[in-house]
Design brief:
Blueprint: E1 2-5, H1 6-20, E2 24-28, H2 42-46, E3 51-53, H3 58-70, E4 74-81, H4 89-96, H5 99-102, E5 112-117, H6 132-136, E6 142-145, H7 149-161, E7 166-171, E8 178-181, E9 194-197, E10 202-206, H8 210-223, E11 228-232, E12 235-237, H9 241-251, E13 254-261, H10 266-277, E14 287-291, H11 300-306, H12 310-320
Helix pairs in contact: 1-7, 3-4, 8-12, 9-10
C-alpha cells in the first residue's frame, strides 16, 4: 500500500483499466496534456487509439460516449468541469440514462462521465457547482462521490467495469490530498458506504469533499465531550440507506453535510430517508449543512461564507446534542 494523492489514484485506476481492457477509451477536453494531472502519461502509454482530445463541444462528447458504448467500447468521457455537463445534458439525460431500459436491455452503455466539481478555488460560479443532485434525479445512471484516494481508485475501476452509465465526480478541493491506496487490482462495490469514524452521540453523514471537514469536526467535538460518527455514502446512486439508518439508530441524531445547494440537495434526500424510515430512532430533528441557493462567488471571502465550514458542523452538532452554543 502506497501513499498517493487523489489525482494520482485516479490516474492509476485509468492506467490499470486501460491496460486490462483495450476497449476502454478516454476522450475529452485537453486529456492529452492532462490539465488536471489525472490523465498524465496515458497518451504516451496507449496512444491515440485509446486517448483522444476532443473539440470543446460537450454535446458532441457526451453523445459520442453513448455511441461508442453501444458499439462495444467502454468510454471514459472527461468533461473537465462539472458545470460543462449542463451543455451535454441531452445525451446524458435522454440517451445514456434511458437507452438500456428503452431497448429492453439489448444495449449496454458502460460509460463513465468524469468531471471535477466544487468550490474553494475561486473558480467562479460557472466552474464551481456540485451537480450530484441533478443526476440523482435522472434514473438510469449511477452517481459516485469519492472522498479519499483509495475510494477514488476502487470506485473508478468499478465504474469503468460497470455496464451502466456512471457519473464520477472528482471533488475540486481534494485532488492534492494524500492517503494510503492499495496496489494491484483493487475495486470497491458501488452502493456500499463506509464508516470513517465510529461514534455514539451524533451521526454526521458527509458527502464527497465534506468528509474531510466532518472528520475535523469530529475531532473538535471529541474534545468537547461529543462522540461523532462520520458516515461516508461514497455513492449516491445507489445509496447505502442501510448503513445510514443503522448509524442513526445507534446515535439517535443526524446531520447531513453536502457541498451542493440546500434545496433538493443530496442532504435533503438523505434527511427525508432518515425522517421516513428512521424516525423512531431520532431524539432530535435531522439537520442539514449545505450551500445556500446562490451562484458560488468568485471572491474568496464570499466563497468561504457560502461553503460549509468545520465550525458550522460543530455548531449544529452542539445544537442537536442539546448543548448551548456561544453566540
Amino acid at each position: 500500500m502506497a501513499r498517493k494523492r487523489m489525482i494520482q489514484a485516479i490516474n492509476e485506476a485509468l492506467f490499470e483499466e486501460m491496460e486490462r481492457d483495450r476497449k476502454v477509451i478516454l476522450f475529452g477536453e485537453d486529456v492529452e496534456i492532462s490539465l488536471f494531472g489525472d490523465t498524465k502519461g496515458l497518451l504516451d502509454r496507449f496512444g491515440p487509439a485509446q486517448i483522444r482530445n476532443t473539440p470543446i463541444s460537450e454535446t458532441v462528447m457526451t453523445g459520442a460516449a453513448v455511441g461508442a458504448a453501444a458499439a462495444g467500447y467502454r468510454p471514459v468521457c472527461h468533461l473537465m468541469y462539472g458545470n460543462f455537463m449542463y451543455t451535454g445534458m441531452d445525451s446524458i439525460a435522454n440517451q445514456a440514462a434511458k437507452l438500456r431500459y428503452m431497448t429492453g436491455g439489448q444495449i449496454k452503455l458502460p460509460i463513465v462521465y468524469l468531471a471535477v466539481v466544487g468550490g474553494g478555488r475561486s473558480a467562479g460560479a460557472q466552474h464551481s457547482d456540485v451537480l450530484h443532485p441533478l443526476f440523482m434525479n435522472l434514473g438510469g445512471v449511477k452517481v459516485i462521490a469519492a472522498s479519499t484516494p483509495a475510494d477514488a481508485k476502487g470506485l473508478l475501476k468499478a465504474a469503468i467495469r460497470d455496464d451502466n452509465p456512471v457519473i464520477f465526480f472528482q471533488t475540486a478541493g481534494r485532488g492534492g490530498d494524500a492517503g494510503d491506496v492499495p496496489g494491484g487490482d483493487f475495486t470497491l462495490p458501488i452502493g456500499i458506504g463506509d464508516i470513517k469514524q465510529e461514534g455514539t452521540d451524533v451521526s454526521i453523514i458527509a458527502i464527497g469533499s465534506m468528509v474531510r471537514l466532518a472528520m475535523q469536526a469530529a475531532q473538535e467535538l471529541q474534545a468537547q465531550g461529543i462522540s461523532a460518527e462520520v458516515v461516508d455514502p461514497r455513492s449516491l446512486v445507489p445509496l447505502d440507506e442501510g448503513l445510514i439508518l443503522k448509524s442513526v439508530a445507534k446515535t439517535g441524531r443526524a446531520i447531513v453535510v453536502d457541498e451542493a445547494r440546500l434545496t433538493c440537495s443530496a442532504a435533503s434526500e438523505i434527511a427525508a430517508i432518515i425522517a421516513e424510515k428512521g424516525f423512531a430512532s431520532l431524539t432530535a430533528p435531522v439537520r442539514r449543512v449545505a450551500v445556500p441557493d446562490v451562484g458560488m462567488p468568485y471572491s474568496p471571502v464570499l466563497e468561504k461564507v457560502c461553503l460549509p465550514q468545520v465550525t458550522d458542523i460543530v455548531r449544529v452538532a452542539n445544537e442537536v446534542c442539546g448543548k448551548k452554543v456561544a453566540s
